Prior knowledge:
This protein is of the alpha/beta class. The protein folds into 2 domains: about 1-235, Alpha-Beta Complex (Spore Coat Polysaccharide Biosynthesis Protein SpsA, Chain A); about 250-290. Helices cover about 35% and strands about 15% of the residues. It is built from 9 helices and 10 strands. Helix 1 runs parallel beside helix 2 (about 40-55). The longest helix has 27 residues, at about 265-290. The chain starts with a strand and ends with a helix.
Amino acid sequence: MNILISIDDNYVRYAINLVDSISQNNSEKLNVFLIHDNYLSDYSINLLKKHIEDNSIGVLNTIYFNVDSINLPNNIDYIPTNAYYRLFAPFLLPKDVKRILYLDSDIICNGSIEELYNCTFDNNILVGCENMLPEHLNIWRERNITRLSLPNDYRYINSGVLLIDVKKYCENITKEEILDFIKNNYEKLKFGDQDVTNKLFFNRIKIINKKYNYQINTVKDNEIIDDIRLVHYSERMKPWNMNYDDPEKAIFYYNIIKKRGDYNLLKELIEKHYQNKAINFYNKLIDKEN
């Protein structure tokens, strides 16, 4: 199973969580491709490589991307520049890689993804899931379509999970076309590489069930579905941060820590997260009374 990731030094520990969770829920060994620039430390690369090999998860392949040579613009403070690297990765992969599954590193696998990985493209280049938003923010979908001049009935996808037909990708677009589009439009790219993906491939994306990219932070606790395969902690709040306040949604992250046996961290996080939840509940109650 070919897996593509792109991280900086701050996310190596979460990339380890990702590959651990995939390995725990799937029988196939992983062929992990890490696309990185010269700012990712050797320490982080070696840490990830050692973990993958020592735990018989698979192998790590590194792909160096010289971002300095292309002067890639980025006007979004919360989206790192390395998020764009997935757009260029297909051109740098070995020729024998026919398909690859890109995954954000704020994702935890919660079940088999073999059906996703082996699904047919149906003459498309990408396979992905529609972007999930809270009901009251669905106007964003319309704004995204207007902003990017997409068809009115288009289903804007989240780029955190993308199955890529590598050959068709490279046959239908060039690195130069992608880079030119970014440079000519970066001021209106509110969601970075995700906007680029939606605009350049809008008519060549197969939409699949949201269980394969369940953006759990966007739903209420009572709306969480049972059969989530890929739990995506999109948005800025992450369950590994002490200021997170939704323990029910953090359970997937707690389970990873539990399996690793780090009970001190688990206890610290759970206590803090429930404290945050209690404080927020109290503040809402007081506001209602006033």
